Amino acid sequence: MRSLRCLSAEALAVHAPAALQSLDCVAHNLYPLLFKASYLLEQADLVQALLVRWPLEEFRLGALLGPGADHPEDLRDRPCRPCLEACVRGLRGHVLRAEGRTRLRLADLTGLRDVQEPQCRCRRTLGRWGRTELLARACFELQTEPRVARRPTVEVLADLFVTNGNFEAVVRALRPAGPAPLRLLCPSFRADSLRPAQLLQVVRLAGPGALRRLEVVHNVRLHAGHVEQLLAQVRFPRLTALTLPAKAFDAPPAHGPVPHDEDSHLTAIARALGQMTQLTELSVSFSRLTGKIRELLGSLQTPLRTLDLANCALNHADMAFLADCPHAAHLEVLDLSGHDLASLYPSTFFRLLRRAAPSLRALTLEECGIGDQHVNRMVLGLSPCLQLQELRLLGNPLSARALRRLFAALCELPGLRRIEFPVPRDCYPEGATYPQDELAMTKFDQQKYEEVAGELRAVLLQAGREDIQASTPLFGTFDPNIQETSQELGAFLLQSFRSALEKFSRALEQME
Fold first, then answer.
1. For residues 329 and 339, what is the distance between their CA atoms, to the nearest angstrom?
2. Nearest to 42 by CA among 13, 6, 5, 74
3. What mean pLDDT is reported for the chain?
4. Tens digit of pLDDT for each residue in 328-362?
5. Do the beta carbons of residue 381 and residue 360 sit within 8 Å?
6. Nearest to 247 by CA among 211, 278, 219, 223
7. Of 43, 119, 38, 44, the residue nearest 75 (C-alpha)
8. Given 3-state DSSP classes, what are the helix, strand and coil percentages for the chain, each rounded to the nearest 5?
9. 193 in helix, strand or coil?
10. For residue 235, what is the enclosing H or E element?
11. Smallest Cα–Cα separation from 32: which of 100, 108, 101?
12. Please, what is the Cα angle at 367 between 365 and 369, to 5 degrees?
């Protein structure tokens, strides 16, 4: 229930012109509540004015928009474009105010959540990439403003998302040539569609000493030599989470008669990871790591809570190490998709599952060859996982009957909230093979699938588990970062394809 203070703040925010004239009379401890009310009502002018006059030493956006005693509603899933643009304009106006009249020292703009369905009334959102560009341009413009020479610096925390499209703006903001009234700091950094040299440059400028999360994804084409160089030349003493793109552990291309020593790169990378004393999340999916997991993970100083090894071509030795290593008992999020676990490594996989059971919250086993013959053992293996909240099983050849059996057992897991189940094998033409390509995946009997899906939801309802969401997202779940930069990613892929064709043509000419 909203407090009287909250209702009063909203009543004032509704009448924005009157509120703008009265701000100097508002008590300083009411500014946070008035800001949240203005953001909720999308009063952008009032949001901007509040930031210009902000009387406190800290402005923390995520905390201000989160649930509180006076205002229990959570607004963090409303990255409203007009309000966020007003925030940045307000910060700019704040540092340009008369000297000596500002107290703000820290502006934390992290904590927003990008969602598929906009919650703000205007339906106009500003994603992480857009927020990065907006803030970078504001920081750079202030560096060229002659009035800021003697202004105190305001530190700005932001989760940056850098691609080739906003690279130059971010670099200018991070590398000021003169006074920087807004000093950009980066606790979380995501990179896509960058060349390796660009990645190295911008990560160095982003302040790696304060970096907590580093995501290098999709169209940053790294090989093991690049990863070794990045980790050797840039220290990450506080890094807790690291994501590397596909093929990041492949050997560099050979340009001479002497091939690169792939093992030496892996040893250097493992040594660098071992020096990260706070690393608890590691994602290296779609890298070929056959027989290398012990060396990669063995020197880590802290137990991993998140581990993504999807499609890494693991062998029995890798699985045995995972089942017996110290990390197993601490895992909360685990992805082993793309490995034939139940057939090739049944004992080691279920030993790993048994050790992870007390802590495991999310398990992804897509395209793991789990068939009807494995369901009983899967039920036994999952039954101790009482903390499990999410289970993803897409791409496995399970029949409708097996899925009903599995769903009945999953109803016994008290924390489970989401199941992603495959299209039942019965819905595909007879003789369908697994794993499936994208075309084969879509050729199933839609009507029969809907009937089975209804039966599975009925199993949940009969067990009183309406709180479990069950779905089959064939082409993946919503990714706000990919959605926001889809046009740039498409252009980048097209250019890469053209470059590959040109290299192929030149190679043919040389052969002739």
1. 21
2. 13
3. 91
4. 999 999 999 999 998 899 999 999 999 999 999 99
5. no
6. 223
7. 119
8. 45, 10, 45
9. coil
10. none
11. 108
12. 95
Pick from 69, 38, 40, 63: which is nearest to 51 by CA?
A: 38
pLDDT tens, 121-157? 888 999 999 999 999 999 999 988 877 667 788 999 9
Average pLDDT over residues 489-506: 56
Beta bridge partners of 386: none
Q: What is the DSSP string of 247-282?
A: TTTSPPPP-SSS---HHHHHHHHHHHHHT-TT--EE
Higher pLDDT, 416 or 208: 416
Residue in 377, 375, 369 with CA at minimum distance from that of residue 344: 369
Name the DSSP letter for residue 125: B
Q: Residue 155 forms beta bridges with which residues?
A: 106, 183
Q: DSSP letter for 421, please.
A: -
Tokens of 302: 């802290």
Give the C-alpha separation, 93 to 52, whole Å: 5
Q: How far apart are the first and last CA of the chain?
A: 78
Are 128 and 115 in contact, with CB atoms under 8 Å apart?
no
